[in-house]
Amino acid sequence: MVKINLSVVTFVLVSLVACSKFDKLREPEVTVPVQDKIETRVELGDSIQTYQVLGSHSLLSAIQAKEVRAVGNRKIKTKSLVLSFPKKLIGENFVFGGVVTQVSDVKNATLGNLKLSDLPPVFVNPVLSVKDNQFSMDLNGCLQNCDELSSQETVISLPIVALDEVNDRVVVDLSVLGEKLNLIKMMDPNGEDTQLKTKTSEVVSMDFSASTLVFDVKISMVPIQTKAGENPEETDFTVRWYLRLGSVFNPAFVSREKTSGVGYFMTERGRVPKIIRHGLTHFSGQSDQGVVKYYLKNIPEDHKESFKLAFDAWNQKFIETTGRKLIRYEFVDIEDPRSKFLIPGDIRYNILEWDLVNDATYGGLGPSIANQFTGEILSSNVLVQGPRIIEIYQKWFKVSEKIQQLQSQGREFLAQEELKNFLLSREIETRKSKGQLKLTLQGKAGFNIHSQDRPYEDPVIQKEDFDLIPVGVSYEDYMRGYFMDLVAHELGHNLGLRHNFKGNLSAGEGDPQQGKVSVSIMEYLGRSFRYLDEIGPYDAEAIKYGYMGVLPTITHEFCTDEDVPDLQNTKLSAECSRDDATSDPFGYFLRRLNRAVDLVISRGTETAPAWKAQEMATFIESTVRGLAFYATSAETTSSDWKQFFNKANRPQEASQVGAYVKSEIQSRLQPQDLDSVLSTKTQEAQGQVKQNLIEFQNLIGEVLGKVGA
Fold first, then answer.
1. What is the pTM of this model?
2. Which residues contact 231 (CB under 8 A, 6 or more apart)?
3. CB 32 within 8 A of CB 127
4. Residue range 367-394, pLDDT digits in tens
5. d(CA 555, CA 237)
6. Which terminus of the chain has a smaller tally of CB atoms within 10 A, N or C?
7. Is 163 within 8 Å of 171 (Cβ atoms)?
8. 49 or 400: whose pLDDT is higher?
């Protein structure tokens, strides 16, 4: 195993504002002597990380003193950021990649959504090259369909400015990577999406520990358009790049390929994709306390219990299925001096952070970074939009309480106005801040932007959800269950697990109960159900396969994002749905359609409808699609349906399903009690109901036309 001795590797930086690891750089003071050295020791968990920094002009002094020899015709810049790299590591295997770690604009959810976006690791070999008397260390690797025989290309090139022949090292200048790694300029060269232009892009910090070099590229941007005399506010965007020795991977790790019945994320670069998962042991041996260490940052005291429950529940599941714990964890509060060093996205750590800085459109986000040849996870992170979640759910409880009070007073119109204003405000906010962006490395390799990736999507609120708070549930009890579910769901992603949209098909009948709403924590559930979900039997089956190699005994209780029917794939199984929430999806969608009819005609009141049909368009569309897909997919998938044929008064043959679905939808288009409903309303209210019905019928017709039903 090749190891780097920190006493041999020296990082040369411009002088620092302070001795902290990631302080901003400034112009060097020429009075700093060559021998000046800052050594910082930072305790993180079970290890002490050590690094060294010197003033950058020390390199020039070393050249003048003939301690190192300048090579090539490159000019050594005043603000050069220099790494002394052992020549014995030339040709060794490394993994190279980058993760978006920080965005300074705290309210820009579009940019906030970019946090934890990552370039999947590329296996590279450092190779020395020379062209036109300019020396460089090229990182050569394979970007796709890779195996041991794959041809390689230069992923990135680092200029060599000097040789340390005494210590047998090359001295490379990382400062040039600032411009080479300006991802924002590559993503949005004209500022059309961000309305920002690059002011500077530079390498601002560097650190080394655990056989891993990390360095930050900070891109500072200003608005494209500013008013005369206005001092534009800068937006900073930071990517933490890493170069990690391949020899640190666990040689005992066993790769596994995809199997039916359970779902894992897969590697992307290898010719044969592997599932991604953590190793159960360190290569130094088994740890009874758990081999995967998490730092939990900024968690408020009144929610720590929910987070502990989620971690402990996964550990209990691992003990039951593998015989050992996987995870250990430690809370790191905001006052803890280690907090500023623990940045989600740093490849060296596993971090769950209650995000106090950036807005984003998700509730939680839980991606992992894995060895692209074996599937072994290097690092896992979770971001929780805690403050935004608290804000939304406090409003939901207040609105629900007000609605229930108005309904008890017979003021249904005002009650529906309250609900409408709340839901539409959330929908507008979500739509406004959800842009589709694309990041690439020099046009060669794409970043995964997990926040806009369906397999990772965890919406903070489902805009189609018209439910009020469950009766008799306090805010404190609800949020305890909600955060336990959210954290356990995101940890499931961290462990490698995909969504499972069939988990609810095996849910218990009757009123929803704790732990009985789904057999999988990887399910999507609406607000009225989500706080009751727990890690279930499906999740245990998935863990047994991924971590123990035991094939699943039940293979029909899983479907994931690419199995969900949509307008391009209408014949995929209707029972694979993101939008349902009970063991009988068809019945669930019929109840939703009934609810839509009630709101369209304001059934049970003497008033005009508070809702216009167009204001319910997203709710109506997802509901009608859920029903229509039964008609479009019956011939191809009904043999695998679990629940549809189990209910009375439904057809038992696939050939009859289409006509049955059509009949059920048509019966809602013209309610049989319409005359009775209209008779209690004023002339003006009757006109609004009729107009609403026409719009309602047109919306349903449009949806059915799109689906091809």
1. 0.88
2. none
3. no
4. 999 999 999 999 999 999 999 999 989 9
5. 44
6. N
7. yes
8. 400
